[in-house]
Amino acid sequence: MFGGASRNRLRGNRLSGNGYTAQGNNFGIGIEGTGTNDNVVEHNTITGNTNGLYMTAGVQGNIIRRNLIVGNPPIQVDLDHPSAKGVDIKNQAQSGANTFQSNRCLTAVNAPCPAVKPQPEEKDK
Amino acid sequence: MIGLKISLWSGAFIGALVMGIGNAQATDIGGTISTTLTITEDSQLVDDVTCTVTGAPCIAISGPNVTLELNGFTMTGQADAQTACAGGTPTFSENGVDVESQTGGGIAIRGPGLIQRFRGPGIFLHNSTGVTVTGVTVSTNCFSGILVGGGSDHQISSNVSVRNGNPVAPCGGI
Questions:
Q1: What are phi and psi of A73, to 5 degrees?
Q2: A83: Cβ contacts below 8 Å, ≥ 6 apart
Q3: Residue B21's pLDDT is what?
Q4: In chain B, how many domains are there?
Q5: In chain B, which residues have their Cβ closer than 8 Å to the Cβ of A26?
Q6: Cβ(A5)–Cβ(B150) under 8 Å?
Q7: Which of B155, B162, B170 minimises the CB distance to A30?
Q8: Does residue B169 belong to any structural domain of this protein?
Q9: CA–CA separation, A31 vs B173, rounded Å?
Q10: CB atoms within 10 A of CB A96
Q11: Of the candidates A1, A2, A18, which has its C-beta nearest B162's C-beta?
């Protein structure tokens, strides 16, 4: 999402194997550019992409909750292209500008990872 | 089974006729699309689609309240089968399904179905409002599988996005 896309809901999608390693900022899900605010990204499975979730500076009010975001990039990409530096969540927005709740992730820039503990609501499913 | 085949071929034939016009209301779609097909009423794929449109979308939806049902069929563009962006010059406007500046709401793109190998995004929602995209698989498109530019209030759920990306621009699954 880019260019001021707002109030969208991305739910229950599966994103895998997306992105060129050389580009570095490719992703499973991207929230990019000024005004791309107030979106909800929930219950998605995001694995094996160049980055998992990619957020640029300036985005705000987005809620990222209950996603599985792991293995971004896959180990073979990490080993063969160490300069790519992909992570599960790359958040370049100001700390606190967006909300992260109950995601499962291992690596991040400026996001609460690693986080793997099941939440109470998830035990009931 | 024979009846089903006859139905599918009839649909493809009708679709092919409509595609020659390039603009249609309720439409059964299948076969080759060589000029952007703009749909203005509920439409469905009745066979696989091969898109040879250059520098423009394959199917454009002009709403409001228009649903495109993929019905389990495949839309295939002109990008490279392995790497997408290596299939000639990446062309942003050459996307699979395009929703441009539609703010009336009620537009839907429904799977199951596969949108693959476009030299632009697989699905592009641009400056539009209230579009639903559900159950679609988007794969091996140059730029993003599903790209949302501007606009608001879309519901994008239960889709599968794999092997999309771009060597220059920050793109990916959605």
A1: -80, 170
A2: none
A3: 43
A4: 1
A5: 165-166, 170-172
A6: yes
A7: B170
A8: no
A9: 11
A10: 8
A11: A18
* CB contact at 8 A, B145 and B124: no
**Residue from the list A7, A12, A15 with its beta carbon closest to the beta carbon of B173:** A15
Q: Which residues of B touch A12 (CB under 8 A)?
A: 157-158
* H or E stretch at A99: strand A99-101
ipTM of the complex: 0.93
> With 50 as the cut, is the pLDDT of residue B151 above it?
yes
Q: Please list every residue in chain B whose beta carbon sits closer than 8 Å to the beta carbon of residue A46.
A: 173
- B172 within domain boundaries: no
B70 touches B136 (CB < 8 A): yes
Site of tokens 């995601």:
A103
Single-letter amino acid, residue A91: N
Q: Using the CB atoms, write b or e for A48-85: b if 16+ within 10 Å.
A: bbbbbbbbbeebbebebebbbbbbbbeeebbeeeeebe
Q: Which residues of B touch A (CB under 8 A)?
A: 85, 144-145, 147-174
Contact A86, A72 (CB under 8 A): yes
B75-133: pLDDT as tens digits? 999 999 998 997 667 789 999 999 999 999 999 999 999 999 999 999 999 999 999 99
Q: Residue B45 is part of which domain span?
A: 2-162
